[in-house]
Amino acid sequence: MITTLTPNPSFDRTLRVNALERGEVHRASLVRVECAGKGVNVARALAVNEHPARAVFPANDDDFAAFDAALAATGVTSQAVRIRGSIRSNITVVEPDGTTTKINEPGPELNAAEAGELIRAAAAGSGSGWLIASGSLAPSTPTDFYAQLAASLPDSAHRLAVDSSGQPLELLIGTPCAVVKPNLSELVHLTRRHMCTVGEVVDAAIELRDAGWASVLVSLGRFGAVLVSDEIAYGTVSVTDVRNTVGAGDALLAGFIAAGGRGATALAEGLAWAGAAVRSVGTAGARVSGEGRRAVAVSQCVPRRLTVTA
Fold it and tell me: To pair with 258 at 20 to 30 A between CA atoms, which of 49, 186, 225, 273?
C-alpha cells in the first residue's frame, strides 16, 4: 500500500477550447470535473495501474463524500481530516495543441492543529510502505509543513517522497527524504543557479542530494527527466499526441515510486506513466501500455550538454 498526502486538494474543472483569447467569450467543447490535487492525482494513477493506494487529505463532510465516491470508483481508499472550510476549485483550459492554462484558488484555511492531524493521519496508516506528500499548502498552513512531516517519520530517508514548491520545499532542504521531485523552475529557485543544460541540472541536483535527499528526481517537461541518486540517469518519452500536461509530473512520481523509487528502471517506468498522462484529457490518471513503455529511452550516459530550456 502506498499512502499519498494532499494538504490542499481541489475540484479540477477542465475545459477544452479552440483557442484561448484574452477578453473574448469562449465556448468549451469539453468539460470535465474531477476530484484532484497532486497527491490525489498520484493515488489515482497508482490505482489505475493496479497499485493499492490510500489518499489522505483535509475535507468537510460534504466534500469528503464527493471525493470518497470518486476515488473509490478508481480503487483508492480515502481518509479525511475534517475541516470547516471547503475544498478549492481549480480551472484548467486546454487548447488543441496541448497548451494548458490554469487558474488555481488558494484553498481553505488550515491551522496548525489541523496540519498536525494531517501529518499524524498520513504517518499512522502508512506502515513501512511509501508515503508520497505533494502539492501546495492551503492558507495558514505552517510553511514548514513538509519539514515537520519528515521529522515525524523515523525512516523518512527510506520511504518519504515529496513534490512541492516555493518556501515549503526550500525549508525541506537538509532534512532526510528518500525522494524529492522538483521541476526545472523549482530547482532553479532552490539552488539559485541558472540552468540551460542537463549537466547544469545534474550539478544542481547533486548539491541538494549532498544536503540530505537520497534521490532527486527532476522533471523537465518535454525534455524528459533527470535522476540523481547513487547513480545518475537521464530519460525521455516520445509523445506525439499531447492532450493535457496537467498531472504529468504526478504520474512521473507515481510510476517512479511504484517501480521501487530507485534507479534507472524506476525512472523509465515513471516516464512511461507521464507519457500516458499527457495523452489523457483529464487528470484522473491513465493506464500505461506496453507501447507507452517502449516509447521511453533512459541512459546512464547523461548528455550533459543537452539544452533543456525553450
Answer: 186
